[in-house]
Amino acid sequence: xxxxxxPGPLRPGPFLWTLPYTLLGVLLALLSGTRPxxxxxxxxALSDWGFAHLFLTRRGFVAMTLGRxxxxxxxxxxxTWVHELVHVQQYERWxxxxxxxxxxxxxxxxxxxxxxxxxxxxxxxxxxxxxxxRAAAQIWPPAL
Length: 144
What we know:
6 strands, 4-stranded mixed β-sheet
């Protein structure tokens, strides 16, 4: 999988294929007291309290993707953005099967050895190696 910095245009097929999880992501953001913001073809919800924040921070995570929604506990760096974009592409490829497959691998092998996580981590690591200054740069929320 190549180094992807932009989710590309919103296409009807993949959008509909990811829609159930996108709606779940929006609902989870709203239940966490945050409103998802549209950014470069995706919705991003910065949660500093509520269920999403608690769920992520208790597990030591910064962000989580559901369909085309990225839930995050802090501003996104380019490295995290790229990692989460890989998950968006995985949702587009696997659709409703993605989350059950992800969880199956997670139970079988754990987070670090989950093939979906390994793929996302590899792309983010490549960015860090090729452009370390860009990898750490904050890209969302945009500077005012």
